[in-house]
Design a protein that fits this description.
It contains 13 helices and 19 strands. The chain is an alpha/beta fold.
Length: about 425
């Protein structure tokens, strides 16, 4: 029995890729996962390239692993940074044994046997590859519904690291949801760069199904109790999708709508494909259809050319939509992207001021919304043990609530009354 240690950086798609690698390595190469990198036979860093910082972090981490690893242990780099840096990683860190791109995960059992191999083809198609089964959680199952992305947002490196968008055949997805939910994962979490663009392109002849229809089919599986997904693209927020979202009781009422900027002019420079008015209209329609929906978003401040007026437009959208959660970042130029060639950069100090202002502004909204939850009752699905004798879970609309309790609560549903509110999570007590 050999051991593999995997450090996963970045998004949920990377977490699912890590699960796939562990599944393949354990089924085909007799590996088991370990948390002990110093004594592992194989060390993998599954990387993220969405901003510059994770890339810097990679090389300092590699150096540390190489120093501490046991004799004969192998080191591999996978994920998005592997895709765009490729062989340069081995040039900068010659002790790295292989480099495997984000679109080549299924080749993990090949590259471990080919010293200094670099597999980073972003046109490689593993959309029909039936990965072996491994899950990081017994209660929630990530399920990929597509690979790659067909958009060209000017700030984003993903299309250059994960390739063009291909939908995974519906039967593969349904089988995976059935298998995972029968094994105990009552919550299915669908993953894709643009989930609500599902079904536009398959490789090979497959049944064409829209995302709304896919949600409906998955909800017909008895053992599936909840369905979540990320990320939908605001451009594809069509009425069919929103109708299924609103009316299907198994589809959780939380929607992540990555806005990026509130200025239509900046959205145009970002090539996002929608403007401020469309986003506001879709968000308002969603709130009308599902009053208790929680909406979260992503915001980039200080995109090249962003003026004070543009920034105020972003704050205006926060004011109007009142998001439950905002993930906000300063613009980080990425290699191979159009925006990296734009010259009108925003002064770094102004960028920091804008980010601080935006986060302060959003925190006050988040706190106000949290206050409205005191005394309310939510149905919570418990999925994680926490410190201090707490167990936490999420409501249908993605509110994190923790209660005093033990592991017997994990994987179960209960009605919980909120007794204490907080910015990131609430405390409650189970009511019977
Ligand atoms: S939709 Fe845009 S931001 Fe999202 S992964 Fe694709 S290119 Fe990147």
């Amino acid at each position: 029995m050999k051991t593999v240690f995997i450090e996963t950086l970045g998004c949920a798609m990377n977490e699912r890729d890590t699960e796939h690698m562990i599944a393949e390595l354990s089924e085909k190469e007799n590996y088991v996962q370990t948390d002990d990198s110093d004594n592992a036979d194989l060390i993998i860093i599954n990387t993220c390239s969405v901003r510059e910082r994770p890339v810097h972090k990679l090389f300092s981490e590699l150096g540390g692993f190489n120093k501490r690893k046991k004799p004969g242990a192998k080191i591999g780099v996978t994920g998005c940074t592997a895709s765009h840096l490729g062989r340069d990683i081995i040039k900068r860190a010659p002790y790295v044994d292989f480099v495997l791109g984000a679109r080549n995960v299924s080749k993990i059992t090949e590259v471990i046997h080919k010293p200094k191999s670099v597999e980073i083809d972003i046109d490689y198609d593993e959309s029909q590859f039936a990965f072996k089964e491994f899950r990081g959680s017994s209660y929630k199952a990530y399920v990929n519904i597509s690979i790659g992305c067909d958009k060209a947002c000017t700030f984003c490196i993903v299309p250059k690291t994960r390739g063009d968008e291909i939908s995974i055949p519906v039967d593969l997805i349904l089988n995976e949801c059935k298998r995972a939910s029968e094994a105990g994962a009552k919550e299915i979490f669908l993953l894709g760069q643009n989930v609500n663009n599902y079904g536009r392109r398959f490789s090979g002849d497959h049944e064409k199904v829209s995302f709304a229809q896919l949600l409906n089919r998955i909800s017909k599986i008895d053992t599936v109790k909840r369905i979540r997904f990320t990320s939908p693209h605001p451009f594809h927020m069509d009425d069919e999708f929103m109708q299924e979202f609103a009316s299907n009781p198994k589809v959780c009422k939380s929607m992540h709508m990555p806005l990026q900027s509130g200025s239509s002019e900046i959205l145009k420079m970002m090539k996002r494909g929608y403007n401020k008015e469309w986003f506001l209209e879709r968000a308002q329609k969603l709130r009308n259809m599902v009053p208790d929906v929680s909406i979260s978003t992503d915001i980039i401040v200080a995109f090249p050319g962003e003026s004070d007026t543009h920034f105020e437009e972003t704050i205006d959208v926060l004011k109007q939509v009142r998001f439950e959660q905002v993930f906000s970042f300063k613009y980080s130029p990425r290699p191979l992207t159009e925006a990296a060639l734009m010259t009108n950069e925003v002064d770094p100090e102004i960028a920091s001021e804008r980010l601080a202002y935006l986060q302060g502004f959003q925190n006050s909204i988040t706190d106000e919304l949290a206050d409205t939850r005191l005394g309310k009752v939510y149905e919570v699905y418990f999925e994680e043990q926490r410190d201090g004798g707490f167990v936490s879970g999420r409501s249908d609309n993605n509110i994190v609530i923790k209660v005093l309790g033990d592991a017997s609560l994990l994987g179960t549903f209960a009605k919980v009354k909120v007794t204490k509110v907080g910015r990131m999570s609430q405390v409650g007590e189970i009511i019977v």
